[in-house]
Amino acid sequence: MTITAETSIGSVAAEHPLATRVFARHGIDFCCGGGLPLSEACAARGVEPDLVIAEIDREIATSASDEIRWEDEPLADLIEHIVRHFHGPLREELPRLAGMAKKVYAVHGQKDPKRFGEIVETLKELRTELEAHMMKEEQVLFPMILAGRGRMAMGPVSVMEEEHAHAGDILRRLRQLTDQYQPPEDACNTWRALWAGLEDLEHQLHLHIHLENNILSRRALRS
Ligand SMILES: [Fe+2]
Ligand SMILES: [Fe+2]
Fold first, then answer.
1. Distance 6 CA to ligand 2 centre (A)
2. CA 31 to ligand 2 center in whole angstroms
3. Which of 64, 115, 179, 198 is the most buried (most CB within 10 A)?
4. CA–CA dist 126, 132 (Å, integer)
């Protein structure tokens, strides 16, 4: 596949998994905004599409091996990968980060009560939504796809995509509330660990949503 400025972000990410590293580096939304052509997504981040394409080519040329191309793997394996590598860790990470956020709020909240209070509340909202969301995927959507009824899953897929878009909004809010995850000079270790954990949560969720939106649901609907 030749990548041009008109290729959609989602299909570049699906065809070339290593491209997601380049997109993440530039803050280009490759999961919920996957339908946009490269040119528009780059313009939104103020980067030149040609430079991004060259960087993707370099990433592919210099990596020892490309990551798994889920576009070509059986859907059952992709579902197992999503549940094992994303749902399981997320169920552990959300309560862990929520606990850390409360701790940082209790110790340092007086420095900026509004901001810390909002971080605690936002994480609570994200946890509640994602736990319900993953349960619906595992109990409704994934079994439909595994039973070979993916083509009839239009309804569950559109609910899932709406929920992904909302999770994306929450992640953007968290990024703003944490100054793009830059801790201040005097931040303690728990505070630094919280910011690092939240940044990793964002990265993992982008990869997770990309696999579900741009690969799993598209392939299931046309199966
Ligand atoms: Fe999921
Ligand atoms: Fe999902």
1. 27
2. 11
3. 198
4. 10
pTM for this entry: 0.88
Domain positions in the chain? 9-62, 75-221
- Structure tokens, 178: 């944490």
Give the C-alpha separation, 37 to 44, whole Å: 11
Q: How far away, in angstroms, is 167 Cα from ligand 1 center?
A: 11
Q: What is the pLDDT along the chain (223 residues), one digit of tens a residue?
A: 789 999 999 999 988 888 988 998 998 988 888 889 999 999 999 999 999 999 999 988 888 766 788 999 999 999 999 999 999 999 999 999 999 999 999 999 898 899 999 999 999 999 999 999 999 999 999 999 999 999 999 999 999 999 999 999 999 999 999 999 999 898 888 899 999 999 999 999 999 999 999 999 999 999 8
Tokens for 89? 């860790």
CA distance 23 to 19: 6
User: At 117, which amino acid appears?
Assistant: G
Separation CA 195–CA 215 (nearest Å): 30
Under 8 Å between Cβ of 79 and 45: no
